Fold this sequence. Notes:
Elements: E1 2-3, H1 8-20, E2 26-28, E3 39-43, H2 45-59, E4 64-69, H3 75-83, E5 95-97, H4 116-127, E6 133-136, H5 140-143, H6 147-153, E7 160-164, H7 168-175, E8 181-184, H8 187-203, E9 212-215, E10 218-221, H9 241-264, H10 269-273, H11 276-290, H12 293-296, H13 306-346, H14 360-379, E11 383-388, E12 401-406, H15 410-434, H16 445-468, H17 473-507, H18 511-519, H19 530-543, E13 565-569, E14 576-580, H20 586-597, E15 604-607, H21 618-623
Helix pairs in contact: 2-3, 9-11, 9-17, 11-13, 11-17, 13-14, 13-15, 13-19, 14-15, 15-16, 16-17
Amino acid sequence: IAMKPCSNEFMNEMVPKWKAQGVPIVTFDSDAPNSTRVRYVGTNQEFLGRTMARLLRQLRPSGGSYAMIARKEGRDDAFIEEIERYNNRDDRAHWHELSENYTQTGNPRCSSCLLPGRFMGVMERAVVHNPHAMIFFKQSPMKHENYTDFIDAHRHRGITYIGVDGADYQLEYLSQRYVDALVGQMPHEFGTDAAQALFDFYDNEGELEPDVVYTNIVSYNVIPLELPDSDVNDNMLDDIIWVGYVCFGIVSFSVFICLFWTFLNRSRVVVRAAQPFFLYMIAFGVLVLSGSLIPLSMDSLDPPSQTWSVGVCMSIPWFAFIGFTITFSALLSKTWRVNQLFRAKETDMRITLKARDVLGPFLFLLLSNILVLVLWTTLDPLTYIRQEHEGTDYWNRVISTYGSCRSEKAVAYLAPLSILNFAAVALACWQAWEARNIQSEFSEATYIGQAVVSLFQGFITGIPVVVVVRDQPRAYYLIMTFMIFLLAMILLWLIFMPKIWMQRRYSKMSPEEQRNELLQPQNAERKTGFEQSSSRSILKSSMVSTGSAGYIAQQEQRPPPAQEVSLVSQPEHQGGVITFLSSPPISDLSKIIEDLSSGSLDPSIEFGENIVLPEEMVAHKATGVALPK
């Protein structure tokens, strides 16, 4: 038997008897969940209520107040939940039920209110409070003989009426604007699904799952000739663009401080050991990298020209990749140069190594990046366009757009650029690892390692988030801005701050104290071979290298004490002091003096005690004046 239940008492009494006789019961339209029926086929009342709320929001997008007439359990609660869902958001319309007690009863679902006449009284009491909408959760109010008279009498109020079901007379009311929208059940589906349930019960030998099947619903509404105004969210950056400008300003100021400090202390021991040329490169690379924050902060609802669209978008990878390449190539070349000098000392090789001699990797990486960027800019440039988010309003209109830089084959250019710059990072790590045994206050392997770890940590955590929020401009902009800002500041902090701190410490020492500090082996009891001499050798290899003629690395095969040559800065002049701790061969001495004199340095010469000098140099021992070229 397929039936619409009568009273619960009838169902609870009869269904068990029919079941005992082997007759399955399927209910439709109304349910009897406490009976032994095998399936219920009907409307999901909550879904119907939510659909009524969506129709109201479609017809009255500006929000307002509403009155609920002929409430029905399930439908009304779902309607309230859906229509008031956005009341806590300032960017969406708000809806509220009339605060007045227009039902004149503590229970709006009372059985005495089911008659159409009673509903008309509720409507008359509600209308005087000027609601923006009336919601009928049952047919009863629309069945009243005075319903059309009520609508005509209050048309001037502009009330939106939404009813339930789609009977013939209701569709006629819809065509004559006595109701603005209807949400109806599908009675035909009740019958077909109920019959199918009975068939399935016997076909499955008495097993029937699930025990509840909901049918579709249908909505009817009048499409107005003049649609409500469209509220499109363009997702502009607006005031948050100042975040990018402020971050760029902080980085620029920090770079200026680092450059000024490096230039001011270029003749001091700490800065010479750090190789000023490469410090300038690192600072300049960080500045170029942070320059990508400027075009990243540009946004436009209507781009002024194609040139602007391409220029703004392509300048981002140009600044980012070129700045990144300069910075990490400088770190690579800087560490590579130190490693080359120490390898020469270990193998008793005489080499002259100038700054330009280790710039090969930098030039290769820089030119490779420029080549790829030029091809990208020429063949398939990034272009600023506005795209539409998925989803439309109730009238199938776009509700949200966002601006982004797009090109058809961006991955084809990003891949080689990423590989090239990853290679720079990997090589810098490798050179830092090679220099790990250089035990000196001037060793930068630790700081380079920390910078690379910070870089990878930022990329590993930041890039997946950037991919997820790619079509959310404000979130994407903030994440990219802070990633670039933090990378730039971490590089400056790790490369320059240890040197600034060390320079402050050394500035409080006398020249003799500086020499003693630099020439004293650190942790000598734990060092052997290469490590044991590196504390003093790093000073020679890095500081003398600031001269244009380079540095001669040689280790004599002689009993200790071995020849040690160290150049330390004197605060009172721009040159330095060459201190010989043992008797130098005249050939080496002449070569060192010749190389240093041909450069920018004009050092003085000092000799330790008990040192045997060549005869032609004895005259200079007492005076301590600079030797002639």
